[in-house]
Write a structure and sequence with these properties.
213 residues; mainly alpha; two-stranded antiparallel ribbon; two-stranded antiparallel sheet; 9 helices; globular
C-alpha cells in the first residue's frame, strides 16, 4: 500500500512484537533410542532404513524419501541431501529443490524383479527433469515413496514396541540433542540440520544446550 501510494506510511512499524516463547521440542531419551534401534531390526526394510536415517542424520522425512542412489557414497560415508519430496493433493508425490548397493538395494532389486514390466523406469524430479529411476525408496512399482506413509506407520510401530509416542519429526530433534549432549559444536549441529543461522539452532535446542552445559 505504501509502495502504491495508497497510504503514507506502514502502520505496522508502530506495533510492538510479542516476546517469542521458547520453542518446546520432543526428543527420545538415550535408552529409548537404543530400544528403537533394536525394534527396527524387525520392521519392514524401507521403513526401518528411513527411520534409522532420520535418527542418525537428522534429515527430514521428505529429504530421506527423495534420496537417489547417486546421492550416496558408501565408501566415503557421505549422503548428499539435494531435494525433497511431498504429496500434493491432485498432483501426487512431487519433488522440489543428483553406487553401490547395500541391503536396501538388494531389497529393492527383489521387489523390482517381482513386478517386472510394471516397474517405473524413469521419474520426474525437481524442475521437471526426468531421470532413470534410481530412487532409494519406492512404492511396490517403483513410484516415488510417499512421506505421509512413514508418518502413518510410525505411531503404531512405537505403540507396538512400548516406545514413547513422539512424532516422526522428533527423530530429527533427537539427533540434534544427541549431538549437543556429545558436545558437538553448535555450528556443526546447525550445518547438519541445514539451518541458515546458528541462532535458529540455539533458539530451538536451548534446553538441551543448557543441560549439556
Amino acid at each position: 500500500a505504501v509502495k502504491w501510494q495508497l497510504i503514507d506510511e506502514n502502520p505496522c512499524r508502530r506495533t510492538e512484537a510479542p516476546k517469542a516463547a521458547e520453542i518446546e521440542v520432543e526428543a527420545l531419551q538415550e535408552e529409548d533410542v537404543a530400544k528403537l534401534l533394536e525394534a527396527l531390526q524387525d520392521a519392514p526394510a524401507q521403513y526401518s532404513v528411513i527411520t534409522q536415517l532420520a535418527l542418525l542424520t537428522g534429515a527430514r522425512r521428505g529429504e530421506i524419501c527423495a534420496l537417489r542412489w547417486s546421492d550416496i557414497d558408501l565408501d566415503a560415508g557421505v549422503i548428499s541431501i539435494n531435494r525433497t519430496v511431498q504429496n500434493i493433493a491432485g498432483r501426487g508425490t512431487v519433488f522440489t529443490a543428483p553406487p553401490r548397493q547395500s541391503a536396501p538395494g538388494q531389497h529393492q532389486k527383489a521387489e523390482r524383479f517381482k513386478v517386472g514390466s510394471e516397474w517405473v523406469r524413469r521419474v520426474e524430479i525437481e524442475n521437471g527433469k526426468t531421470v532413470d529411476n534410481d530412487l532409494l525408496f519406492t512404492r511396490w512399482n517403483g513410484q516415488p515413496f510417499d512421506p505421509n506413509a512413514v508418518t502413518s506407520w510410525f505411531p503404531g510401530f512405537l505403540a507396538a514396541h512400548d516406545l514413547p509416542a513422539v512424532h516422526f519429526h522428533s527423530l530429527r530433534h533427537t539427533n540434534a540433542s544427541l549431538l549437543i549432549a556429545a558436545h558437538v559444536p553448535v555450528t556443526t549441529v546447525s550445518g547438519r540440520l541445514g539451518h541458515a543461522k546458528t541462532s535458529t539452532t540455539t533458539d530451538i535446542y536451548a534446553g538441551f544446550i543448557r543441560s549439556s552445559d
